[in-house]
């Protein structure tokens, strides 16, 4: 679970109602490393289809950091929100090269979009 420093923003973001259309637009930043959709493949990051409910570090075809594989996380809304806010606080040693998103609504929108892609 997320450390205290990212837990409060994560709870706020996870509790907000997200807009999947706005999340799709926000995902453009993520798309430089991640794919979603019918033909999604791992690239610099894992594909993110059906990520909600998935155990972290288990998407086929992607080489995860040892930190991510050992994290024990399951990608719930709260854990994803915390990770999107502060990836390196949630999984120290992650290979994800992203500082995080400070805006709770943007995180909620991304979560709504990610829940919509299977």
Characterize the structure shown.
This protein has 118 residues and is mostly helical. The protein has a single domain (4-116), classed as Cytochrome c-like domain (Cytochrome Bc1 Complex, Chain D, domain 2), CATH 1.10.760. 46% of the residues lie in helices and 0% in strands. The chain is built from 6 helices and no strands. The protein has helices at residues 4-15, 20-30, 66-70, 77-85, 87-90, 104-116. α1 (4-15) packs across α6, α2 packs across α6 (104-116) and α4 crosses α6 (104-116). The longest helix is centred in the last third of the chain and has 13 residues, at 104-116. It starts with a helix and ends with a helix. The relative contact order is 0.27.
Keywords:
46% helix; 118 residues; Cytochrome Bc1 Complex, Chain D, domain 2; 6 helices; mainly alpha; globular
Mean pLDDT: 91
Cα(first) to Cα(last) distance is 24 Å
State the CATH architecture.
Answer: Orthogonal Bundle
Which structural class matches the secondary elements? Answer: mainly alpha
Strand content: under 5%
Stretches where pLDDT is under 50 for at least 5 consecutive residues are none
**Biggest beta sheet summary:** none
Secondary-structure map:
Blueprint: H1 4-15, H2 20-30, H3 66-70, H4 77-85, H5 87-90, H6 104-116
Brief account:
With 118 residues, this protein is an all-alpha fold. It has six helices and no strands.
């Amino acid at each position: 679970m997320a450390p205290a420093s990212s837990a409060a923003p994560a709870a706020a973001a996870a509790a907000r109602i997200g807009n999947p259309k706005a999340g799709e637009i926000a995902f453009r930043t993520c798309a430089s490393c991640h794919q979603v959709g019918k033909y999604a493949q791992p690239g610099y990051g894992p594909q993110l289809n059906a990520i909600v409910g998935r155990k972290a570090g288990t998407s086929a075809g992607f080489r995860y950091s040892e930190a991510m594989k050992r994290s024990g996380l399951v990608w719930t809304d709260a854990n994803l929100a915390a990770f999107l806010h502060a990836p390196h606080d949630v999984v120290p040693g992650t290979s994800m090269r992203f500082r995080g998103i400070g805006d709770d609504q943007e995180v909620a929108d991304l979560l709504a979009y990610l829940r919509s892609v299977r």
